[in-house]
Amino acid sequence: MLGRRGTLPVLVGPPLVWLALLFVAPLILIVAFSLRPEAGVVSAGEPWNPSLVQYGKVVGTPAFLRLLGVSALMALGVAVVATMLAYPVAYFLAFRARARATLFLALLLVPFAASYLLRIMAWKLLLGPAGAVNSLLSAAGLIGEPLDLLLYSRGAVVITLIYVWIPFASLPILASLQRIERSQLEAAADLGAGPWTRFLRVTLPLSLPGALAAFFMVFIPTVGEYVTPTLIGGTGGIMYGNLIQDFFGRAGNWPLGAALAMVMLILTVIGVLVALRAVDLRRVAP
User: Fold this and answer.
1) How far is CA 4 from CA 1, 7, 14, 15, 196, in A?
2) Which residues contact 64 (CB under 8 A, 6 or more apart)?
3) Which domains occur in the chain, in start order?
4) How many CA atoms lie within 13 A of 24 on its CB side?
5) In this structure, are residues 159 and 127 in contact, taking their beta carbons and an 8 Å threshold?
6) pTM, to two decimals
7) Which H or E run contains 42?
């Protein structure tokens, strides 16, 4: 029989191989493509001459960097709002749902059973000129004509992405709240702390690592989002991910698309590392 040390490689080995095949290998290919000086679709038989020409094109085109900045700001807004809205949901499940917590958690995860595209298209119908939101506002006499902001704009993309990410963001916050010992809250109450004081001085600091994990879990993939802007944003709500998609698709310029992707990855990783260093998780972790 395998001992504890012998069992660990058996359990960890297959996931590591899977991760290498589906993440590390494609990342290496993207790096290789980004270093090719030629434009257009790259075939496997072409010689590989490493060059930083494509990166020079990215840095030398202000429109690319400006769109990356806009996408980062949109991702920041989505991550902040989604985390703030997810926190009360997680708090309710952890401290108020009690015996029905499992039922409510299952209801929270029900949207995951539907296709992501189906949920996005549902929001497209809700936000459209003849959708439920505009119809309700018109019936209430608040608007005279449909609001253009609600569809084919960056505002529509932000609203939809917040909806998509709230259930995901709730999970790490819920995990951190469930690890809080009830005895700590009871001790604070015995010392005279009221509900808000217990929340601000005990619950919030101890759950902050989960909230930060939720924030980065939303922020990082949202920077490169391209499906939702395509369906909801139209030409007025495109993001940096749409630019990368266009170069790999319609434009057929794989090296430049790969360089755009690597610039986004590098800047995102640097931003996350700087933020983590500024926050210093060791001070907020329980």
Assistant:
1) 10, 5, 17, 18, 46
2) 58, 243, 260, 263
3) 48-284 (1.10.3720.10)
4) 7
5) yes
6) 0.83
7) none
CA 265 vs. chain centroid, Å, equals 14
* Cα(272)–Cα(270) distance, integer angstroms: 5
What amino acid is encoded at 73 in this protein? L
What the block records as the tokens of 113 is 């059973």
Q: How many Cα atoms are found within 13 Å in the side-chain-facing hemisphere of 112?
A: 9
> Which pLDDT tens digits describe the chain residue by residue (286 residues)?
445 566 767 777 788 888 888 888 889 989 988 988 887 776 666 677 788 989 999 999 999 999 999 999 999 999 999 999 999 999 999 888 888 888 888 888 887 777 888 888 887 777 777 777 778 888 887 777 777 667 778 888 898 899 889 998 999 999 899 888 888 888 888 888 888 888 888 888 888 888 988 999 999 999 999 888 888 887 778 899 999 999 988 888 889 999 999 999 999 889 888 877 766 555 444 4
Q: Cβ distance 174 to 87 under 8 Å?
A: no
From residue 220, alpha-carbon distances to 125, 252, 285 in Å are 27, 26, 21
Of residues 141, 140, 157, 138, the one with CA closest to residue 149: 157
